[in-house]
Amino acid sequence: MFFYKTLINWYLKKNRDLPWRKTKSPYEIWLSEIMLQQTRVAQGLPYFLKFTEAFPTVFDLANAEESEVLKLWQGLGYYSRARNLHFTAKYVANELNGVFPNSYKGLLKLKGVGDYTASAIASICFDEPAAVVDGNVYRVLSRFYGIDTPINSTEGIKQFKELAQSIIQEEEPGRYNQAIMDFGALHCKPKSPLCNECPLASNCVALEQEKVSELPVKIKKIKVKKRYFNYVVVITEDETTLFSERKGKGIWQGLYQFPLIETTESISANELVKQEEFVSLIPNDAAISLFNKDEIIHKLSHQHLVTKFWVVRVSQIKGDAIKWSEIEQFPTSVLISNFLKDYTNTNSQNLYI
């Protein structure tokens, strides 16, 4: 009980003033938890505010077009979360009459809702003693109890979940879950934790054994794959371009992009024009230039995208063209969005130059 009560007392004094902390609405709690997966609070907060303004209820979100949802999500990454969010909103609105399941087991059945999110919603909204386990919780528990089992191993995931569940009480489970997450984020930080002023210090095994910097233990990540992306940014004299939805089940599904030619290594302009996709797309009178002189390395969790943006100026386009001024209407990846800002700023007077 020392651990449980101490964290709740700490939270009552140190908790952050966040909009989803002022409600027990399952819709808003669900929205915040999905957004904050693998995302810092400071980054997720503006998106939460945008979404709740655009979609005040689950019915509003369910009735939105997917492209509208993806556009608002743009910049948060892991776009499968946004697609699952939209799918689940439609399911809750249309199949459950807008009422979220009121238990951990029921919430787990929703698409995109895993153990952590189900535990958070169940405890905060319905006072069910379901313990959350995320990166912050792993860190606090591993240090306090001195556990060196890798947190991303099958054994570790099971061990930490069982430990977390054994600690949580019937009394204020939602507040406790928020307390331990905040404590890990603000106090028991990955680097430079505040051990000298820690309310748990007297019983912390890692502090006693001088192992704070060694815990938690994590198995090394899998090898990162390197991919080579060549975006063909076609621009005509009347400022039209080619911009279409990315198909398939890979990264950025449903987002819009310029024609993409993926190669096995970095290529030059002379090599680009020999690519079959380029030949089928671009007429002979094209003027080609590389916009980014240095390759852009866009890092994702398991892959690095070595990217070049080739600006191709032509008199006319093969295929369905759109006006350059319309691009902002479409949801895009951060990679494309950053290019658009840079290119427009560089060529603010005439895009064709």
UniProtKB/TrEMBL annotation:
<dbReference type="InterPro" id="IPR029119">
    <property type="entry name" value="MutY_C"/>
</dbReference>
<keyword id="KW-0234">DNA repair</keyword>
<dbReference type="GO" id="GO:0000701">
    <property type="term" value="F:purine-specific mismatch base pair DNA N-glycosylase activity"/>
</dbReference>
<comment type="similarity">
    <text>Belongs to the Nth/MutY family.</text>
</comment>
<keyword id="KW-0378">Hydrolase</keyword>
<dbReference type="InterPro" id="IPR005760">
    <property type="entry name" value="A/G_AdeGlyc_MutY"/>
</dbReference>
<keyword id="KW-0408">Iron</keyword>
<keyword id="KW-0411">Iron-sulfur</keyword>
<dbReference type="InterPro" id="IPR044298">
    <property type="entry name" value="MIG/MutY"/>
</dbReference>
<dbReference type="InterPro" id="IPR015797">
    <property type="entry name" value="NUDIX_hydrolase-like_dom_sf"/>
</dbReference>
<dbReference type="Pfam" id="PF14815">
    <property type="entry name" value="NUDIX_4"/>
</dbReference>
<dbReference type="InterPro" id="IPR011257">
    <property type="entry name" value="DNA_glycosylase"/>
</dbReference>
<dbReference type="Pfam" id="PF00730">
    <property type="entry name" value="HhH-GPD"/>
</dbReference>
<dbReference type="InterPro" id="IPR023170">
    <property type="entry name" value="HhH_base_excis_C"/>
</dbReference>
<protein>
    <recommendedName>
        <fullName>Adenine DNA glycosylase</fullName>
        <ecNumber>3.2.2.31</ecNumber>
    </recommendedName>
</protein>
<feature type="domain" description="HhH-GPD">
    <location>
        <begin position="35"/>
        <end position="186"/>
    </location>
</feature>
<dbReference type="InterPro" id="IPR000445">
    <property type="entry name" value="HhH_motif"/>
</dbReference>
<comment type="function">
    <text>Adenine glycosylase active on G-A mispairs. MutY also corrects error-prone DNA synthesis past GO lesions which are due to the oxidatively damaged form of guanine: 7,8-dihydro-8-oxoguanine (8-oxo-dGTP).</text>
</comment>
<dbReference type="InterPro" id="IPR003265">
    <property type="entry name" value="HhH-GPD_domain"/>
</dbReference>
<keyword id="KW-0326">Glycosidase</keyword>
<keyword id="KW-0479">Metal-binding</keyword>
<keyword id="KW-0227">DNA damage</keyword>
<keyword id="KW-0004">4Fe-4S</keyword>
<dbReference type="Pfam" id="PF00633">
    <property type="entry name" value="HHH"/>
</dbReference>
<dbReference type="InterPro" id="IPR004035">
    <property type="entry name" value="Endouclease-III_FeS-bd_BS"/>
</dbReference>
